[in-house]
Predict the structure of Ectoine hydroxylase.
Amino acid sequence: MPAKMLDLYPTRHTDKPEWQKRLDPVVHSDELSGSPVPHEKVEGFRQKGYMVLPGLYQEAEVAVFRAEIDRLRADPLTRSSEKTIREPGSESVRSVFAIHRDNPLFARVARDERIAGIARFLLGGDIYIHQSRLNFKPGFTGKEFYWHSDFETWHAEDGMPRMRAVSCSILLTTNNVYNGPLMLIPRSHRHFIPCVGETPENHYRESLKKQEYGVPDHKSLEELTDRYGIETVTGPPGTAVFFDSNIMHGSNSNITPMPRVNLFYVFNQTGNIPEDFLRSRSPRPDFVAERTIFEPLVIQRERFI
Amino acid sequence: MPAKMLDLYPTRHTDKPEWQKRLDPVVHSDELSGSPVPHEKVEGFRQKGYMVLPGLYQEAEVAVFRAEIDRLRADPLTRSSEKTIREPGSESVRSVFAIHRDNPLFARVARDERIAGIARFLLGGDIYIHQSRLNFKPGFTGKEFYWHSDFETWHAEDGMPRMRAVSCSILLTTNNVYNGPLMLIPRSHRHFIPCVGETPENHYRESLKKQEYGVPDHKSLEELTDRYGIETVTGPPGTAVFFDSNIMHGSNSNITPMPRVNLFYVFNQTGNIPEDFLRSRSPRPDFVAERTIFEPLVIQRERFI
């Protein structure tokens, strides 16, 4: 059997969540010299699985992004689109998917050197967008997002073979400790925690609202937080956060009046495209997980003001 | 009409949430000289509506309380009691009420000088327990508690006439920013924000799980947080928090593995007992709001180890 036919990270086939060591590097470029961010940031990312870059986008750029989001959320086409996910039990728009394809402005953000250049460096080669979305966690009613490793989902449900993808979130509102910020378990990206149980058919639509399957077990989460603790990402608008595809993360609800808005891009390395044989079920729609367009991003410095 | 027949804080009778000035003092003792806590703590309480006292109980005392709580939560009598409130959609015990009456240990905590002495000072006279409970916000599934002023509820649903009550929470686990800690809007206690709409009959049982009626409107909450911000209470086990009956507060959900456990006592001044005419509906059960026993607490220094 050729190497590519092996499932190196089995999950959702077992009754016991036995931890496995990560088999892939975290930073895939061999040479730090080409890094677009300071070396200590890269080292922090390697060790803890994430890094925060305040001020990557200017206030005026954030204003441009916010105006476009307000326009999109009010647009009847967006509201009726299957690519739009609502809050559980409400009509509020929670996420709009595939913004790198459908929206000219957010397509330019996707290939902007300031984020895509960092992703290309971390992943050590050409990249494309596996998934993109804008997240709008409203004030007062924003619900929690339970703990998960993105890679575990992308591997089980999309067939992504290896840990060679990275997520980038651009904060467009202030993220405080109290408005449901991203919580990460630092260093958890070095373990693969398989999930117990099978994936139901058409799981994706519910799972984007509320995770119930494909979630890590309580004991593993206790063990991870005992060992490594929990860190929250806070910062002003314009902050960018990069986190490894396999880091355990989640967020609590948001009863404050302050919405939490961000742009979210998942960069995958072009040698790591999904394999059908790794999926146990029918594929998720391609607005959630890219399945046809794997051309490398043409990265360039974009201007938004 | 005698003064006592007036409703000084009308709420739930109106369509418009018109703010009203607080008519009562915050600290009811005239002389700071008798204060059991440093004067700057009292001043902080007066201005912001709450104060945090780390280390009021020792680790060994907390261990005694925790052991009793574990015993209680496992006790079939507790599990089947009407005084026990469960998490929405789960069998987990969320709160056990009237612990100052039913539990000898927690009755002694209620009259312990370390908390009751402070309450008596703040309220400027004899006090009794209006409500007590242990709160157990479990890990992984702890739900949010929406914004509210306790006084608004006690006034509308129990008939408490004036703002002359204080809540004390004793933290029995570490409260971090990420495990659903108490959030307060400092200085909000100086405004009375009436709630719109009527109180449904038998509202209390659902409201203890999830607030849907008697909640402040979005616009008032935005105005309050714009003016005053939000503060979270964090601290190690043994920390005590005193907060004014009218301060706006709430908490987010808790997906972390760390439960949030506390003892909660509401002290009311014996001149401020509930009046039937102020309630619009039938009274809540007396394990939620004391209606018969108004004898002053006999406050003394208690020992738990």
Notes: Chain A touches chain B through 27 residues (CB under 8 Å).
